[in-house]
Design brief:
Length: about 220
């Protein structure tokens, strides 16, 4: 096992792990590895867009120790729990989730991780949680990570850029089939990219997430 990014360790091939912030507690049935007093959680790239981006060779991971992250579409906490491991005790993961049933699962994960804060909100309505972001991290985060199924994915990221510090990083898992059920995938990706570049973002990197996620692309952008 060797470190490839701060907090991310290679298990060989396309298998990775994070150093667990909550040893002894599994989130989604993942394997764990003990080394001395430390426990590592296997990170399945087939169940995580961020994990898939790492498996596809992302050049720079903007989430690390001490990062403040606004996570849009945290679902039941699978990937968000690994982000919790990455940011550690000195960082925070603000988890926005819209579905009440899924939120119940997310809350259980957050109860075991003091650096995770669950928020039952619609990511399109940023005023509804602006006070929480302000109280938790002074109104500005280092990273906005978006993984939502919505035709207006680009608009949602642009709206939430209000919370991103200048020079901060946005990551968006573009889901072509959430935007159009029949359109050309490459054209959909290009349209989303164009929208974001017109909204004070600079493209840093993009990765096709196949075979881990079909018709998905990860965009990494800097707020300018």
């Amino acid at each position: 096992m060797h470190q490839i990014f701060p907090g991310v360790y290679s298990l060989g091939g396309k298998e990775f792990a994070t150093l667990s912030l909550a040893p002894g507690i599994k989130v989604y049935g993942e394997d764990t590895i003990r080394q001395g007093a430390s426990e590592y959680r296997a990170w399945n790239p087939f169940r995580s867009k961020l994990g898939a981006a790492i498996a596809k060779g992302i050049q720079k991971l903007p989430i690390g120790p001490g990062s403040n992250v606004l996570y849009l579409g945290a679902a039941s906490g699978t990937t968000a729990s690994h982000v919790s491991d990455l940011v550690g005790a000195n960082g925070i993961v603000l988890c926005v989730e819209f579905a009440p049933r899924t939120m119940r699962d997310l809350v259980k994960v957050c109860e075991q991780r003091p650096n995770m804060l669950p928020m039952l909100n619609d990511a399109r309505l940023t005023d509804d949680y602006a006070d929480v972001v302000n109280d938790a991290c002074g109104g500005a985060v280092d990273v906005v990570f978006e993984d939502v199924s919505d035709p207006e994915q680009a608009r949602i990221l642009i709206a939430n850029a209000r919370f991103l510090r200048k020079g901060g990083i946005a990551m968006i898992a573009v889901k072509a089939r959430s935007i159009s059920g029949t359109g050309d995938v490459k054209k959909i990706f290009a349209q989303v990219e164009e929208q974001l570049l017109a909204a004070d973002f600079k493209l840093i990197e993009k990765l096709d997430l196949e075979p881990f996620e079909l018709d998905h692309e990860m965009l990494v952008l800097e707020k300018i």
